[in-house]
Specification:
Layout (H helix, E strand, L loop, with lengths): L2 E7 L3 E8 L1 H18 L12 H8 L1 H23 L4 E11 L6 E9 L3 E3 L8 E2 L7 H14 L2 E4 L11 E10 L2 E14 L9 H5 L7 E7 L13 E15 L5 H5 L6 H34 L2 E2 L4 H21 L4 H7 L4 H28 L6 H12 L5 H7 L2 H24 E2 L1
């Protein structure tokens, strides 16, 4: 293992300085040489079969060092943390201080220690009452209606046919305020179902009676609660041009409809919908219970000061989660943040309290796991890792799944799952 110097810093943060000798780096350089000549074959040699000295001459020592750096850092860091029994949390901040041919490799890793619980509340005295899950006929009928909409046929109308109150319309729309086009207010193929609610009251009514090819300009007030504050409650001009009109033919909700969906009859379809809705509500109720349970744990316990390194990482993780969610809905993250009238920095500040809670929950679960002696068997971890590895086709990615650092992470995840189950049994009263 490379020479490692450990420096304690403020707020439960430590800095590890690694010095990797040329001799220690050599195996990684040889592996890097194999990868490089597989990626870019050398004339006269089969991919991955050229000797080390030939690859070094072809690509240069610096290229080999750069290719070998990531596995050197990853393995050196993990080995040091395990060997020194350092209980860390979060990802390390890596800085490479020296990387040059003929020299030792020097890099630092700054990482947060796992903060401790100064005073853990007596969770055996906490209590949450579970709410009964009920499914109404109205909810079942609404779900049936949603399925009916998905099975509805859309038939293009003949030229000259007027828009009816239950049609689907595809139009080109341009929104202006005081004669100036609004950024993002242009939609060349905007679809509207006139039988459904629209977010701008009165908009649908303006379309009824129009025909394909017709154009119209009208003014309506935007809803007062609209997310875009510059438009909320303001009168806005709409330029619309009708492109396509469709008559909708929904199927009858009967036994024939039910059988087309793979069930015996309408009664069985309703029973299946009821079961699915109950399962969804069960998940929602358990999520709510866990949120309440975690908030009680954090509020009634006391913790060491949370390292800035850990807090910033958690905030960035929450930002990434929000970004993925926004983009999964077909929206641009920058536009979403702009519509909130906030900067990214302000959004991070807003996330700080929630990030602190999430960190403290993780610390509390860790403390409870120690107190209750919650353990994970090797075969449980192996089974979970095998399940994760199945998702990847790339052999290199599969290999990484079984590395010590990821195994350690999965063990913590499995421990947390068991602790949450234990807490639910203690705290949630049916």
């Amino acid at each position: 293992m490379p020479n490692v110097q450990i420096e304690e810093k403020e707020k439960a943060t430590i800095k590890l300085t690694f010095i990797v000798t040329q001799e220690e780096a050599q195996p990684y350089l040889e592996e890097a040489a194999v990868r490089l000549c597989k990626q870019t074959p050398i004339p006269g040699f089969r991919p991955g079969k050229a000797g080390f000295d030939i690859v070094k001459q072809r690509f240069g020592e610096m290229k080999l060092l750069e290719e070998a750096l990531e596995p050197i850092i990853r393995k050196s860091y993990v080995e040091a943390v395990l060997a020194k029994n350092i209980e860390t949390v979060g990802s390390p901040k890596i800085d490479v201080e020296k990387l040059a041919p003929g020299n030792d490799i020097v890099f630092t890793a700054e990482v947060a220690r796992m903060p401790k619980v100064l005073s853990l509340t007596d969770y055996t005295k906490l209590s949450i009452t579970a709410k009964p899950v009920e499914i109404s006929e109205k909810e079942i009928d609404q779900a049936l209606g949603d399925i009916q909409k998905m099975q509805t046929k859309e038939i293009r109308v003949q030229s000259g046919t007027q828009i009816g109150e239950k049609d689907k319309v595809v139009l080109s729309m341009n929104i202006k305020k005081e004669g100036i086009a609004i950024d993002g207010g242009q939609s060349p193929n905007h679809a509207i179902y006139l039988s459904e609610d629209y977010y701008i009251p009165g908009f649908k009514e303006q379309l009824v009676g129009m025909k394909e090819g017709d154009q119209k300009t009208f003014t309506l007030p935007f809803p007062k609660e609209h997310v875009q504050k510059m438009l909320a409650g303001s009168n806005v001009d709409f330029d619309v041009s009708i492109k396509e009109i469709y008559k909708l033919e929904p199927p009858e909700i009967d036994d024939v409809f039910a059988s087309s969906l793979g069930v015996k009859d309408l009664k069985e379809l309703k029973e299946k919908i009821s079961t699915n809705l109950r399962d969804e509500k069960d998940v929602e109720e358990k999520t709510h219970q866990e949120k309440e349970m975690f908030e009680m744990l954090v509020k009634k316990s006391q913790f060491e000061e949370i390292p800035d390194l850990l807090l910033n990482e958690e905030i960035n993780k929450m930002i990434d989660e929000l970004k993925r969610n926004v983009e999964s809905q077909g929206l641009e993250f920058e536009t979403y943040v702009s519509n909130l009238k906030k900067t990214l920095a302000q959004l991070k500040i807003d996330f700080t309290p929630q990030a602190l809670t999430r960190i403290k929950v993780a610390i509390a679960l860790h403390a409870i796991a120690d107190k209750e002696k919650v353990e994970i068997k090797d075969e449980e971890t192996d089974a979970e890792l095998d399940k994760i590895a199945e998702r990847y086709e790339d052999p290199e990615m599969k290999k990484r799944v079984y590395e010590p650092s990821f195994r350690d992470y999965i063990e913590r995840v499995l421990v947390n799952r068991k602790v949450i189950v234990l807490l639910r049994q203690i705290i949630v009263k049916l």
